[in-house]
Design a protein that fits this description.
487 residues; alpha/beta; Amidase signature (AS) enzymes; 11-stranded mixed beta sheet; 11 strands; globular
Length: 487
């Protein structure tokens, strides 16, 4: 098998046994990129020179460490979503307004990767400022789904998910505000995990909605996800929302039996209008988990119907506040103007894309005098009710299982003229962010058109171990994760 098709632990084994050098691995990945990137367009920036430099340093560390003494990510090529700061390497958020922005500092998650000796392959494309469900809102280009180049890869972490699915990297990081890791992972047939809010430091993540954003792994299998979580999880004094909790070794729960675990199946997530093939695959996945000893239990999350409206008030309100800093003065794109106010207005009008402008206007309206009580405050109250729904459900079940997305990947351009239909693509993922609980998407089937379908497993606050245990049991009992797109 080609090196670029392997996972983290398999490449770690090759490197430790001296059966391949770090340069062999890096060259294999870039050879793959050279052959498929013009079709996929997953990367905003490729960092080949930097990767070769990092590979030389990693090889020296492997040579001096000896057998078994290497960190898990030493010499492993990983892609980073282009909304995480990388010192000295451009970070654009796929926006014209940050086209030439080069951060003077490193995000916490990439700093932890650097300590491990990882190889930065490149920065991946996204919906501008992570606002979107299809990666069609990038200011630069649209990423394509490796399973069907006429379809979207999901969003906003579409570049990261497509790069992993197309074997253009060994693993990637994404960010998830309303489903932006899980939905593209489902549509591209890979594994995507959104951790509990506060589990991963947001320092150096360019903010979209600060009470919702979380960084997480996008990988080829569950074990790789656990390996990355071991590294990026943990308290960070640079992020005031970072939880001061110990980090378990997540790989140790893999392989534990799930007999007797109670799986909550919420009726609100099997709705009229969802794709029949998606529903059938998810119900089959639940039956498979039952055959492994888990017990399916009907549960209700009654405020789910308010999740999309609640999210698009709160997320846009926070975006309106967070994006006020892009004024053409301190950094980023600047347009000309006859005076200061004219320069502000021209910069923001020319620098932001249509979807970002739409969300800024929605959020500014919701926060404006006379409307704050009616919209923002009401949405916060609804958020509390949604969070309570999960807490009550978790009094009787260990995890909740749902579809990740109501449909498989849709065609490019199919929903760009109808923002509401686009927003509904995240209907099954948004509540997880509002409640702050962890969720993972794993492959659970394919449509007749050979498009991947995702199963979402949702856990209690700070209980990533249980969702990993369930996900791994399902993965090992099926072969969906082993299918690869033909490019």
């Amino acid at each position: 098998m080609e090196i670029y098709r392997l996972g983290i632990s398999e490449i770690r084994d090759l490197l430790d046994k001296k059966e391949a050098s770090v340069k062999d691995v890096v060259n294999a990945v870039y050879k793959r990129i050279d052959s498929v990137e013009d079709k996929i367009k997953a990367f905003v920036t490729l960092t080949k020179d930097k990767a070769i430099e990092m590979a030389d340093a990693a090889q020296k560390m492997i040579t001096s460490a000896g057998a078994g003494g290497c960190p898990p990510l030493l010499g492993i090529p990983i892609a980073i979503k282009d909304n995480m700061c990388t010192r000295g390497i451009r970070t654009t958020c796929s926006s014209k307004i940050l086209y030439n922005f080069v951060p003077p500092y490193e995000s916490t998650v990439t700093s932890r990767f650097i300590e491990q000796g990882y190889i930065l392959i490149g920065k991946t494309n996204l919906d501008e400022f992570a606002m979107g469900s299809s990666t069609e809102n990038s200011a630069f280009f649209t990423t394509k789904n490796p399973w069907d180049l006429k379809r979207i890869p999901g969003g906003s972490s579409g570049g990261s998910a497509a790069a992993v699915a197309a074997d253009e990297c060994i693993a990637a990081l994404g960010s998830d505000t309303g489903g932006s890791i899980r939905q593209p992972a489902a549509l591209c047939g890979v594994v995507g995990l959104k951790p509990t809010y506060g589990r991963v430091s947001r320092y150096g993540l360019v903010a979209f909605a600060s009470s919702l954003d979380q960084i997480g792994p996008i990988t080829k299998n569950i074990k790789d996800s656990a390996i990355l979580m071991n590294i990026i999880f943990g308290h960070d004094p640079l992020d005031s929302t970072s939880a001061p909790l110990p980090v378990p070794d997540f790989t140790k729960v893999l392989g534990q039996e799930i007999k007797g675990l109670r799986l909550g199946v919420p009726k609100e997530y099997f709705i009229e209008g969802m794709d029949k093939e998606v529903e059938a695959s998810v119900r089959d996945a639940i039956k498979k988990l039952e055959s492994l000893g888990a017990v399916a239990v009907d549960v209700s999350l009654p405020h789910t119907e308010y999740a999309v409206a609640t999210y698009y008030i709160l997320a846009t309100s926070e975006a309106s506040s967070n994006l006020a800093r892009y004024d053409g003065v301190k950094y980023g794109f600047r347009a000309e103007g006859k005076d200061l106010m004219d320069m502000y207005m021209n910069t923001r009008a020319q620098g932001f894309g249509a979807e970002v402008k739409r969300r800024i206007m929605l959020g500014t309206y919701a926060l404006s005098s006379g409307y704050y009580e009616a919209y923002y405050k009401k949405a916060q109250q609804a958020r509390t009710l949604i969070k309570r729904d999960f807490e009550e459900a978790f009094n009787t079940v260990d995890v909740i299982v749902t579809p990740t997305s109501p449909t498989a990947a849709f065609k490019l351009g199919e929903k760009t003229e109808d923002p509401l239909q686009m927003y509904l693509s995240d209907i099954f993922t948004i509540s997880v962010n509002l409640a702050g609980v962890p969720g993972i998407s794993i492959p659970c089937g394919f449509t007749l058109n050979n498009l991947p379908i995702g199963l979402q497993i949702i856990g209690k606050h700070f209980d990533e171990e249980t969702i990993l245990k369930v996900a791994y049991a399902y993965e090992q009992a099926t072969e969906w994760h082993m299918r690869m797109p033909s490019l």
